[in-house]
Design goal:
159 residues; mainly alpha; two-stranded antiparallel sheet
Length: 159
């Protein structure tokens, strides 16, 4: 196959007359001459788009910084609120625990004192019983000892 005048591959094509070829070339050159203006237009549009996007991105970054600062402030305030709330709850819980411990200690003290008094009464009763037994044993031993002693003579007043 042979290349045709249009630069493509084709069969046997008759060559075009020169004036037609010149006319086609002039049209192509005219279109090519329009390209720089079109490129300048596109370049201007691209530069304008770039500037607008840069401004938009800058605005977005600025807005995000502002939002981040606000968010930090809100989080800080929430953190302080939570800390305050937790402290309050801990004080309430502590007060409840202290009250409960005091009640339990009071109950244990009352029970302990009751038991101490009970044991005191038991010990005192045992001591009375032991005292009576010791007294009775001493009296009994004294009688035995008295029974073994020789009879005494009455004393005279001057002796």
């Amino acid at each position: 196959m042979q290349a045709d005048n249009r630069g493509g591959m084709g069969g046997d094509v008759q060559p075009q007359p020169i004036d037609r070829r010149v006319e086609r070339l002039e049209k192509r050159v005219a279109k090519l001459e329009e390209l720089p203006a079109m490129l300048e237009g596109l370049t201007g549009q691209i530069l304008q788009l770039r500037a607008e996007m840069g401004t938009e991105f800058s605005d977005q970054r600025s807005e995000m910084r502002t939002m981040a600062g606000e968010l930090r402030g809100e989080m800080h305030a929430m953190g302080e609120g939570i800390v305050t709330q937790l402290r309050g709850e801990m004080h309430v819980m502590r007060d409840g625990v202290v009250k409960q411990l005091r009640e339990e200690i009071g109950e244990m003290h009352a029970h302990g004192m009751s038991r101490v008094l009970e044991l005191h009464d038991t010990v005192m009763a045992e001591l009375r019983t032991i005292k009576v037994e010791i007294h009775d044993n001493v009296v009994s031993e004294l009688r035995i000892i008295k029974g073994r002693l020789p009879a005494r003579r009455p004393r005279r007043r001057g002796e």
